Amino acid sequence: TRKILMHVGPETIDYDVLLGGVKGDVGFTSKEFVDAMSFSLKFLRKLMGVSESYQPFIIPGGGTSAMESVTSLLRKGDKVLVVSNGVFGNRWIDIFSRYPVNVKALKAKAGYYVKPEEIEEEVKKDNYTMVTMTHVETSTGVREPIAEVTKRIRDYVDLIVVDGVASVGGEEVRAEDWKVDVFLTASQKAIGTPPGAGLLVVSENATKRLGEDSVAGYYLNLKNWLGVMQSMEKGKASYFSTLPVHLILMIKKAFELIETEGIENRIRRHEIVSSAVRKGIEALGLEIVAKTPEAYSNTVTGVMLKKANPNDLLSMSLAEGIEFAPGVHPDLAGKYFRIGHMGWVNINDVISAIAVIERVLSKLGEPINFGEGVKAVQEYLINGI
Ligand code: PMP
What we know:
Blueprint: E1 4-5, H1 15-20, H2 31-48, E2 55-61, H3 63-69, E3 79-84, H4 87-96, E4 102-107, H5 116-125, E5 130-134, E6 136-137, E7 142-143, H6 146-153, E8 159-163, E9 182-186, E10 196-202, H7 204-208, H8 222-233, H9 245-261, H10 263-283, E11 287-288, E12 300-304, H11 310-319, E13 322-323, E14 325-326, E15 336-340, H12 347-363, H13 372-384
Parallel strand pairs: 1-13, 3-4, 3-5, 5-8, 8-9
Antiparallel strand pairs: 2-10, 6-7, 9-10, 11-12, 12-15, 14-15
Helix pairs in contact: 2-9, 5-6, 9-10, 10-12, 10-13, 12-13
This protein binds 4'-deoxy-4'-aminopyridoxal-5'-phosphate.
């Protein structure tokens, strides 16, 4: 049967995007590939809300390679403050622990986010070179108010880095207005392409720091990729290490579709879809993992279960045609699952998702308001938007 993938990336991918990469004769120095890179690098600036002063990068890997590549901006002994709201916030700590830099972390409890005033207080206490944040923490679906934080901390730190892996393409991102130095994402999430690439924009100030004295290694050293990106953007082939050619053809196609849809319209669609998901979940009487409404994200919703085993819900939903994602936050292990709603998702997918959850949980004996979920979504779509 046809399946809807409402996991946390990859999710169901548009066929035109997939077909964009079905080419048997495209080499890494070909005009077709160089043009795709040039277009994609330029469009990445628009998607991130930055001017030409920012340097775009598309590198192999994904979210983690993009994250690790920011070590290109650090020197031995630098102090880094990690703001962590969950599993992917903690990943920054694991990455920096591999390098000769000093790491301090501010951590929120599962379902919460570190408050802007707390971050402000900490950066005023010490001399941090870099602060890292996670825009949408995928393990819980919690969104950090990046604009508010950067307003408070900009004057106290050299570099502000934001992991937008679960946000770019589905949430408003205005990296330049928010004075963020590095905004990064991965191909498999709200951009709606397969996994395999990390995408970043880097401020002029930060780009100037790329040099011989960074703590970065070889492959993920942005200094080694800089010339390639600059050359490709100008339409000239260049090589440091082979890029995922066919994926980048798909990224180009996805970016064309995003341009046609309009970035604002795409974000609005994600807002409507995520609101509809929450209406359905709440009407069923289930609790959302994100504890405060201002922290609800457009892209991921964590759902607590009282009685049913989330693994049973996942396997039975899959048998009914929709694949959701397991919960991964260790503090909530076995108590929740996640609905991914990003990329090419639409309101009919939400109706199907809530209907499946309603059916499956009813069979599993979870106490829910049976029949109220789909109804609430329908009412929202008619009267609520
Ligand atoms: N950051 C966030 C917020 C993520 O959701 C993920 C992936 N789930 C990553 C980083 C890591 O990305 P990848 O798995 O592509 O390395």
